[in-house]
Every structure is written in C-alpha cells, then in structure tokens.
Amino acid sequence: MTVSESSAGGRAVAKAPRRASAAKWDKETPLGLVRRARRMNRTLAQAFPHVYCELDFTTPLELAVATILSAQCTDVRVNMTTPALFAKYRTAQDYATADRTELEELIRPTGFYRNKANSLIGLGQALEERFDGEVPRTLDELVTLPGIGRKTANVILGNAFDIPGITVDTHFGRLVRRWRWTSEEDPVKVEHIVGDLIERSEWTLLSHRVIFHGRRVCHARKPACGVCVLAKDCPSYGAGPTDPLIAAPLVKGPETEHLLALAGL
Ligand code: SF4
C-alpha cells in the first residue's frame, strides 16, 4: 500500500498498488518465494504486534480442552463456556470420572456436545492411563489422544509449551493458497511446505498472525485488499475491493485503527 499526500481536501489517502500480472508470480523462483514469504511474515508482525491464542486457558490441560471444544465453534463462545467448566474440572482425573450428563450440559453451547463430551472423558482417561495425568509435550504423543488431531496438537505445543508449531486451520490454509505459498489442500502437506519457507522460531507467531489476518482483513468472500498491508506481495490482490474507502469498512477487530493507519487512512 502506498500513500499519496496530495488529495482532495488536503487529506492523505491511500493509493492502491496496481495489480501485478499473473506472469510475475508464475516466474517466481523457490528462493524468491522464500524471500517473499518471510517478508510477508515480517509485514504481518508489524500489522499484528500483539498476537495470542484467542482461546482462554491457564494450563496445558485447559488449552487441550478448549481446543477440543473449539471444533465447529467460535473462540468467543468457547471462552464463554470454559470458566464454569474449568472451575469444576481441574485435572485429567476429573474428566476421566466425569458425570456425562453434567459435562454435556456444561459444554452444550459449543455444539456437538455429545461427541465433545466423549472426547473430553476419553482425553482424561488416556492422560491418566498413559501420561500420569499430564498433557504430553510431543506431537507424536499428543495425536494419540482422543479429540486431538495434528492441528490441535500444534496449538498446544506452540501456546502451552512454547515449542514451535504451525497450526493449519481453515483460515491458514485459505490464505497461504491465496498467497501462492502452496496450492496443496492437505493440511499436513501445507504444514510441511510452510515449515520449509519460514524460520522454525517463527512458526507459532506466524500461525497466529495469518489467522488474525484471515479473521480481520483477508475474509473468504470479500477480502479488504484496498487496505491490506500485504497488497504488493499478494498474487490475489484484487480478489476483494481495491478502493481503500470501500475496503476500509471490511476490516474487523480491535486492531482496525492501527491497520487502517498503516494503509494511510
Ligand atoms: S491483498 Fe487481498 S487477497 Fe491478498 S492478502 Fe490482502 S486482503 Fe487477502
């Protein structure tokens, strides 16, 4: 996004970059892609300097439970549900021996509550039987637990244990394909390909930044291209409105003012 100081009424307005031809991206070399991907990560770091896991938790077990509940449910709704749950169920043993009806009732607002109750009881039992009641710290062990797939395992590693992990959720996959970092649909392949592009130490923060960008700016249906900090590096620039004044209202979330200021608005 470039900014023009000369504008009607003396107000600085953002001037949208011209859309690069598709041929430019077709000719990109593997090294060029690495450089562009890392540059985009640095730009996202400026756009979202305070990223975090949007699920509330204080222990690895609470994060594991919250991520299980977040399937097909918004983080906001999970965060409204977990305070009462975490107050009552504090240990793996508590979940292992839970009264099913009571547990289902507590997690009902998150949807699919019968399946989720199965996963939580199974999680508690597996942790008790195989891991002394503690959440394990490796991907291989985590994915053996009920309700925990690779995506959830990476969320737990990165956010509860500070072990770098790439979380490929729907936002992450959608955006990296839009950016031509990969055309793969398979989340595990996406994880490995992005892992080769971006420094390992950045994996967890990158995951948050990309997900933040997907939720706030680069929406599936109408991305806010006209005010997007990644515009000059994005092969999909133009997928949404490029006029900054039309794009600006599409930006959501608490960082809106900061994001629009970066875009010159
Ligand atoms: S330019 Fe548009 S498509 Fe590309 S990242 Fe930004 S909002 Fe998404």
TrEMBL record:
EC number: 4.2.99.18
Record Gene3D superfamilies: Helix-hairpin-Helix base-excision DNA repair enzymes (C-terminal), Hypothetical protein, domain 2
Cofactor binding comment, as recorded: Binds 1 [4Fe-4S] cluster.
Bias type Low complexity, positions: 11-23
Protein family (similarity comment): Belongs to the Nth/MutY family.
GO molecular function: 4 iron, 4 sulfur cluster binding; class I DNA-(apurinic or apyrimidinic site) endonuclease activity; DNA binding; DNA N-glycosylase activity; metal ion binding
Protein name: Endonuclease III
Cofactor(s) annotated in UniProt: [4Fe-4S] cluster
Pfam families to which the protein is assigned, alphabetical: EndIII_4Fe-2S, HHH, HhH-GPD
Organism: Mycolicibacterium iranicum
Alphabetical keyword list: 4Fe-4S, DNA damage, DNA repair, DNA-binding, Endonuclease, Glycosidase, Hydrolase, Iron, Iron-sulfur, Lyase, Metal-binding, Nuclease
Keyword hit for Coiled coil: no
Role summary: DNA repair enzyme that has both DNA N-glycosylase activity and AP-lyase activity. The DNA N-glycosylase activity releases various damaged pyrimidines from DNA by cleaving the N-glycosidic bond, leaving an AP (apurinic/apyrimidinic) site. The AP-lyase activity cleaves the phosphodiester bond 3' to the AP site by a beta-elimination, leaving a 3'-terminal unsaturated sugar and a product with a terminal 5'-phosphate.
Record-listed [4Fe-4S] cluster binding positions: C218, C225, C228, C234
GO biological process, one term: base-excision repair, AP site formation
Region (Disordered): 1-23
Keyword Cell inner membrane: no
HhH-GPD domain segment(s): 69-216
Matching InterPro entries: DNA_glycosylase, Endonuclease-III-like_CS2, Endonuclease3_FeS-loop_motif, Endouclease-III_FeS-bd_BS, HhH-GPD_domain, HhH_base_excis_C, HhH_motif, Nth
Catalysed reactions, as listed in the record: 2'-deoxyribonucleotide-(2'-deoxyribose 5'-phosphate)-2'-deoxyribonucleotide-DNA = a 3'-end 2'-deoxyribonucleotide-(2,3-dehydro-2,3-deoxyribose 5'-phosphate)-DNA + a 5'-end 5'-phospho-2'-deoxyribonucleoside-DNA + H(+)
